[in-house]
Specification:
single chain, globular
Length: about 100
């Protein structure tokens, strides 16, 4: 029985996306969203956070009020930290190709 569990875990691991695959998926989705965000830094950061949390499985299919509060809290922490804010802006610009 334990051997069956190990085999099932190995099969699950085989189909688990790698970090590189998650990064590609993130960048592809983020680039598709960007034209709809009107270069609004606050919206770009929120979309950035939302996609990361969604791809990591932290947020489910339905975004709850608690999820939005978490994103707003994370945004506030980013905006309050000058170095972190600059880094997020650098990441956004690199994805945009600027």
């Amino acid at each position: 029985m334990a051997k069956d569990l190990d085999l099932n875990q190995e099969i699950d691991d085989l189909f688990e996306p790698t970090q590189v695959e998650k990064n590609v998926q993130f960048e592809t989705l983020f680039k598709c969203m960007m034209p709809h965000l009107n270069n609004n830094y606050s919206e770009l950061v929120a979309a950035h956070l939302l996609l990361i949390l969604k791809l990591e499985g932290v947020i489910g299919d339905t975004i709850t009020k608690k999820d939005m509060e978490m994103i707003e809290d994370m945004k506030a922490k980013i905006f309050d930290d000058s170095d972190l804010s600059k880094e997020v802006l650098r990441l956004i610009k690199s994805i945009k190709g600027i």
